[in-house]
Amino acid sequence: MRLSRRGLLRAGLAGTAATALGGLATGCAVPTGSTGRNMVLWYWSGGLSDTVVKKAKARYDSSVDLDAIQIGGYYRSKLITTMTGQAHIPDIAGLKGEDMASYLPNADQFIDLRTLGAEKLKSQYLDWKWQQAVAPDGSLIGFPIDVGPVVQYYQPAVYEKAGLAHEPDDVSSEMNTWDKFFAAGEQLKKRIPGTYILTDVGSVFEMSIGQGTTRYVNRDKHFIGDGEHVRVCWDRAVEAKRRGIVSDLVTGTPDSISATEKGRLPSQLNASWAAGDLKLQYPKTKGRWRVANCPGGPSNVGGSFLAITKACREPEKAFEIITWLLNADNQAQGFVDAGLFPSTPASYDMKKLREPDPFFGDQITMDVYGPAAEKIPVAFNSPFDVALGQPIKDEIKNVGVLGKDPKKAWRDAMSKCRRIADHLGVSH
Amino acid sequence: MATVPLVEKPPAPAVEPPTPNSRKSIRSYWRLYAAISPFYLLFLAFGLIPVGFSLYLSFHRWDGLGSMQYAGLSQYKYLLSDTDFWSSIGNTIIIWALATFPMIFLAMVTAVMLNSAVRFKKIYRFAFFLPNVTSVVAVAIIFGSVFSTNFGLVNALLQAVGLDQVAWLNTPWGIKVAIATLMTWQWTGYNAIIFLAGLQTIPGELYEAARVDGAGPIQTFFRITLPMMRPVLLFVLVISTVTGLQSFSEPQVLLQTTANESTFSGGPDHAGRTMVLYFFQQTFDNNDFGYGAAVAWGIFLVVVIFSIINWRLVQRRGED
């Protein structure tokens, strides 16, 4: 056949049209969930131990192809977009701890793990963590991955120089309350001028909130951020500022990193997973850190869950996989590989978690993390906590960084909260 | 001036009015329509439908996953009374002004210098354009160091001339200046290249005539170069307005601190919270998709107002 220009055009157009039609046709038949033998698992980089995921793939190979995909970027919005779009929804999805409260009102999008026999395993997991995945209707939508017990990371050499307690046990007992911690901060500043025990006031406020059982909005959708329990935390943060033990640097900036390296900011109140960040950010300070209890008691930051979506075709199989992925042995491996602190207390006594850590001067850090994790209070997290906690956190930052009058800052925070509460339909 | 109509009536179309057989001609042109259809189909799927849906969304309450509830005009009512939204408009405009005017001045100077450069012309052009194709995220991280309090380049320079340190990323004005400087740095080269193209269209005879008449270089610049460059200048202004009003990554990356904190809060006193940053915070931090959509339409209106101002400027120039 001779190829004419017209013929070529026609062929090209026909081809395009066929592709487009084909696309439309398959478009109508986009599967809601996965297809074939696939069992799709969504998580994020560092969300699960790669070794454990690899082992799970091999272990369940005879029945399903476990397709574990690391989703980059803004994880939550990608997951809810896919779920709302009703197409290619993963069978198993990781849910981040800080997003958990916002998934709970939509518990009907996930399979109630109680129907698959989750209750039988409940005793093996930390109770407060388990409760975070219980929706208002009582259904359980997530299975615990890790937790983030908050501890005090500190540089013993600096504490010693300032005449403070510096062995982990002594620090834990002699700085067990916020008041004693602040007093230590004053001594530190007096003995070594230019050294601050706190980088910013925000950590005092947030850790204090985390040590309580109530936050900003209660179960009845009522704003309680103006209550005594928040006021106490606020006043505590303001006091830290007033006593002059807070630096004027912002956490994570080059200034604070350099000051930390030089021992000018010898203390950090942060979750267990921050140990990984410390090791990455300050490799030169290896051996110069220790871990002690957080003043004022244990609290939690972060930690995540695995859920089974409604689109999953084989919930029983999926449940078998996630309970295996998250059993005590594999959670111990998760800690070793990715710093995921286990939600299974049985892991805490395992040998591989009781290895001395050279970064922390060969301290067995589990002695601090483990008991802290078990003592974290059960708190209620409302889906409105993010929106209604933010104005208070913003204003305490203004007090800390800009020196705003604390009374005015509190008034501004409260009036903003009431306005947002009205908008969100939260009573106050 | 008010007597002059803003829009001139377009001249009568040269094409003939549609005849009864125009319908038939559409059918005979189907191949051409099919050939241009991919753009329209893609625009429909990824442009028009989302835009329409966001309008629909702005009349609802939605957490992104559950069922939507009709909310009438309440999202817009709240938008009007939301001081945070208004302050974010203020921040955006201040940052835009702080970035754009120095940028246009510097770009013009750079373009004139590039135009008169004798050697390495291409290398210079490439070097000045480079910042524009560098990732904003990488640039913002570097600028975070440049503006840091104790070890930043800027404070080192200030101290070298005997001035005090400024906590750039910790004070409301410092934050705005830092963001604006970043944007200036990133866009000066791009606009200089556009100015350069404009400069090269100015006929050489004009300069020759000026030289013959005894005009100096400064006079030549203000009497010939600048008036001839007016359309290019306006184009640059319009482009800068469009990008400046949508600034998002610059404050987001420059002001993010720790993993525990919202990356959309815009620093102390929300000094760096631009309109788009506020939209992200409402939508993705608070899961308030309905209100987020309303904020997006608010941003749209602000951009429309600025476009009208720009357009009127262009129109007036055209009538000179």
Cα separation of the termini of chain B? 11 Å
What integer is the average pLDDT of chain A? 92
Quaternary state of the chains? heterodimer
As laid out across the biggest beta sheet of chain A, the strand order is: 2-1-3-9-4
Which radius of gyration of chain B do the C-alpha atoms yield? 25 Å
**N-to-C span of chain A:** 80 Å
Q: Look at the structure and give the mean pLDDT of chain B.
A: 86
Biggest β-sheet strands, sense, barrel of chain B: 2 strands, antiparallel
* Strand residues, percent of chain A: 5-15%
Shape of chain B: globular
Structural class of chain B: mainly alpha
What is the string of helix and strand elements of chain B? Answer: HHEEHHHHHHHHHHHH
Structure characterization notes:
The complex is a heterodimer of chains A (428) and B (320). Chain A has 428 residues and is α+β, with helices and mostly antiparallel strands. Helices cover 44% and strands 10% of the residues of chain A. In chain A, strands 2-1-3-9-4 form a five-stranded mixed beta sheet. Chain A has a three-stranded antiparallel beta sheet with strand order 7-6-8. A two-stranded antiparallel ribbon of chain A has the order 5-10. The N and C termini of chain A lie far apart (80 Å). Chain B is mainly α and 320 residues long. Chain B has a two-stranded antiparallel ribbon. The longest helix of chain B is centred in the first third of the chain and has 34 residues.
